[in-house]
Amino acid sequence: MSIQFDFSGKNVFVVGGTSGINLGIACGFARWGAKVAVASRNQEKVDNAVATLTALGAQAFGVTFDVRQFEDVEQGFVQVADFFDGDIDVLISGAAGNFPSRVNDMSVNAIRSVLEIDLLGTFHVMKASHGYLKKPGASVVNISAPQAFIPMTHQAHVCSAKAGVDMITRNLSMEWGTDGIRVNSIVPGPIHGTEGMARLAPTPELEKSVTDSVPLGRQGTVDDIANAAGMLSSEQSSYITGAILPVDGGWSQSGATWFMANMSTMLDKMQAK
Ligand code: COA
Ligand code: NAP
Question: Order of strands, edge to edge, in the sheet holding 90-93?
Fold first, then answer.
């Protein structure tokens, strides 16, 4: 269930906003009255996301780029700025890739892919965005993960990439603070029905064990994350910057570590079959 914020007249750009959690965030801002743009690699996903946002009553626009290609990201911002015809009030950066793999089984190209999408991609999006962000007043939210501060087996690529994402958040909160731009990270816990969860908990057994390891006793919803993005980007949060905000039912306190140890054993068994 989505709560109410007022973002009417505001321009919101969600990078990686064409499925799962990030599309849920884009839908939240659409319901709260914003003009919304989304971007990702796949044209069909971009078109479908724009149709979904339009059906919610928003003026919506999509651009197609890979966050690994800086010039394409820059060009995307030019197109989005044309569509908005004004500054960006809220920027969400959440493009990411993940698969479970131990370091010994991971090729150099595999870890490079995730570092380039999650970490370098975040840098590209931040760098390309600065000229278009509202000064003062913009809210930037990077989508992180518990792996940023909890070591997990099969996740060295994501752990290192998302730790870097959170450091970009903290550094930019200082560098951009003087422009009146706030920069925060949201750290989603296990979010039901998403690609990320399908990859980390691909069996009913693992799905149950992740739910059991959340102190609040349930997986999160995309609306839980959208509501946190709305809260962080609202006027009421105007003194919050540099925060790394877990929205995870308490999972990162200890359940995440327990689950990942369990996942590791089960994945090893599956892979041995
Ligand atoms: N285990 C180990 N290595 C894997 C892997 C897996 N499950 N899946 C992909 N890789 C490796 C590939 O083998 C390749 O390495 P190689 O060239 O040495 O063989 C490398 O990763 C890149 O894979 P490729 O499919 O060419 O990359 P891509 O750029 O098309 O896709 C990914 C990037 C791999 C991250 C892909 O999973 C993706 O697009 N993910 C986005 C969706 C997602 O992950 N959602 C969850 C968000 S948390
Ligand atoms: P998802 O549906 O796969 O979302 C990933 C989005 O990023 C898609 O829109 C995808 O679209 C886009 N994308 C991927 N690679 C890209 C690239 N190179 N360039 C541009 N766009 C790219 O996954 P999700 O599970 O909802 O995850 C969303 C975010 O939440 C991620 O940052 C993830 O790390 C974080 N997170 C998820 C969970 C969870 O439980 N699911 C938990 C913690 C954190 P295209 O394929 O069209 O490019």
Answer: 60-64, 35-40, 11-15, 90-93, 139-143, 182-188, 244-247
Report the amino acid identity of residue 12.
V
- Nearest CA to 32 out of 64, 6, 71, 13 is that of 6
pTM for this structure? 0.97
11-268: CATH architecture: 3-Layer(aba) Sandwich (3.40)
Mean pLDDT over residues 209-230, rounded? 96
CB 146 within 8 A of CB 95: no
**What's the confidence (pLDDT) of residue 29?**
98
Measured in Å, residue 143 CA sits from the centre of ligand 2 at: 9
In the chain, domain spans: 11-268
Q: How far away, in angstroms, is 152 Cα from ligand 2 center? A: 19
Q: Is the pLDDT of residue 34 over 90?
A: yes
Residues with CB under 6 A from ligand 1: 96-99, 101, 106-107, 109-110, 113-114, 195-196, 199
d(CA 263, CA 154): 9
First to last CA, the chain: 41
Atom 45 of ligand 1, nearest CA residue? 97
With cut-offs at 50, 70 and 90, classify the pLDDT of residue 39: very high
Percentage of residues of the chain with pLDDT beyond 70: 98
Ligand 1 centroid distance, CA of 241 (Å): 32
